[in-house]
Design brief:
By secondary structure, the chain is of the alpha/beta class. It is 39% helix and 18% strand. The chain contains 15 helices and 12 strands. The strands form 2 sheets. Strands 4, 5, 6, 7, 8, 9, 10, 11 and 12 form a 9-stranded mixed beta sheet that branches. The chain has a 3-stranded antiparallel beta sheet with strand order 1-2-3. 52% of the residues are buried.
């Protein structure tokens, strides 16, 4: 680590301790990073998943292991894992899949070094707060050195850094013999939330916004991608692999009661027909269910008028289907500042309108509220630290909150489900790795009964009370 950067981080750490004394909080336990290692793991999808106009047929997982110590002499090893998700995190019309994935791979190497070079003792949230600016500088460096046609965006940097952050939270909990949601007290963090958010959070601790114990269960949102067969007539090339291949078959096998509908945002008639067809199949298959849907446009709607017309026509053609829409996810472009004219106030009168790709920091959350958005999506792939802080902000400002994944398998899904089961008011999670990349879940289903498989449309989360993030002992 360059001496100038080391001095900066040391000074920031000293400021942390000063703030602790001022708020009458004892010096936090913290952790010291001893070693960081990472590896990649590749899986092919059983079937392509189409969202945002792009079909994805593979995943590269970034797996991170950290070794840490505490001032009390305890040591622990933490683990974090996350799909790279370059199609979502680094979409590009000028660069192919391998180019954006390659940039994330290179960025992972640099984040690994930056994290390993950090030698101060601090809480994982404080470490992420200090290191994220360094990660962003590294992303800019990769963009320049690889002569990328478009620079690596902040969201992509957060996704690449997220398993490092997860591994630190996991290790800290293990070192203290606590579930990581029990490590967010004022005593252990040594800071109030105003350091990471704004003055509205003066004197508040994160433990106010999370529960020490998980919910017993949460609803599973089953995803219907743009290429998925809703009816048998749409099944052009059966896989015949023993798994469901139509929506009706999935509903029957898993007892589904919640559906995430992936829409185009560029073809109004298709979006309307797709939503109405999914509602029809759902009600025909399980007429006794009180169905709930999430409509996700993956930022492809040209404007809010498109969204309003979509809602009007769905209500006209399927009143029950319209009533079942629980919320609307990221209808227009993720760059809110470049899209200031697309105000969501009128649409939000009908249903919560949630930001997903736009949510990279508190500044964008506050801007979204000004623009009429009423909800926010929490994702493990943006980092555990980020998810916890945005969960606090969302609750503080009375926003609708939900948890989505990034087709997260294995440890990354345990992580994601932990968020959904520990944030008050949440009761649902998207979990589609079981549909598209079940091979990556194979080693995990027996270790977490009822979390990777379901028979009643629910996932059992009471078991997510193990030490750390709970995925690896």
């Amino acid at each position: 680590m360059p001496s100038t950067r080391r001095s900066f981080l040391r000074s920031a750490s000293l400021l942390t301790l000063g703030a602790s004394a001022q708020t009458s909080v004892s010096k936090p336990a913290g952790l010291r990073i001893e070693k960081v290692e990472f590896a990649f793991e590749d899986f092919k999808y059983r079937a392509p998943y189409k969202f945002g106009g792009t079909a994805v047929d593979r995943v590269t997982l970034l797996n991170v292991t950290v070794q840490v110590s505490t001032p009390a002499g305890k040591s622990a090893t933490g683990f974090g894992s996350m799909p790279m998700g370059n199609v979502w995190a680094f979409p590009s019309k000028t660069m192919p899949y391998e180019t954006t994935l390659g940039a994330m791979r290179e960025l992972a190497k640099r984040i690994n070094k930056i994290t390993g070079d950090f030698k101060e003792t601090a809480h994982p949230i404080e470490i992420n707060h200090l290191l994220e600016p360094e990660y962003l500088k590294a992303a800019a460096g990769v963009s320049k050195e690889l002569a990328l046609a478009e620079p690596i965006p902040k969201l992509c940097t957060q996704v690449t850094a997220s398993p490092f952050d997860a591994a630190l939270h996991d290790a800290f909990g293990k070192a203290l013999g606590l579930n990581c949601y029990q490590t967010y007290s004022a005593e252990l963090m040594g800071q109030d939330l105003s350091r990471y958010l704004n003055a509205d959070f003066k004197g508040e601790s994160l433990e106010k916004y999370v529960t020490a114990k998980p919910r017993d269960w949460i609803w599973l949102f089953h995803s219907v991608g743009g290429l998925d067969a809703v009816t048998p007539g749409e099944l052009k090339e059966p896989l015949n692999d023993g798994m469901p291949e139509t929506l009706g078959d999935w509903i029957k096998r898993d007892g589904l009661q919640r559906i995430k509908i992936k829409l185009q945002g560029e073809n109004l008639e298709w979006d309307i027909a797709r939503t109405v067809a999914i509602d029809r199949v759902a009600r025909e298959t399980r007429p006794e269910v009180e169905w709930k849907y999430c409509c996700d446009f993956n930022e492809h709607c040209p404007n809010v008028d498109y969204l309003l017309e979509f809602l009007r026509k769905v209500k006209e053609q399927s009143p029950q289907g319209f009533e079942s829409i629980l919320y609307l996810e990221q209808p227009t472009r993720r760059d809110l500042r470049a899209d200031r004219g697309n105000l969501m106030h009128e649409a939000a009168k009908f249903r919560p309108v949630v930001i997903d790709e736009s949510l990279t920091d508190l500044e964008n959350l506050m801007l979204s509220r000004e623009m009429g958005y009423t909800g926010a999506c929490l994702k493990a792939c943006k980092g555990q630290s980020h998810a916890m802080l945005m969960a606090a902000a969302g609750q503080k400002y009375g926003m609708f909150l939900c948890v989505q994944d990034l087709t997260c398998p294995g440890a990354s899904f345990v992580h994601s489900a932990g968020i959904a089961s520990h944030v008050p008011g949440l009761s649902t999670i998207e979990g589609n790795a079981r549909q598209y990349v079940p091979a990556a879940n194979a080693a995990w289903t027996g270790r977490f009964p009822g979390l990777f498989e379901t028979k009643d449309g629910k996932l059992l989360t009471r078991q997510l009370d193990r030490v750390g993030l709970g995925a690896v002992g």
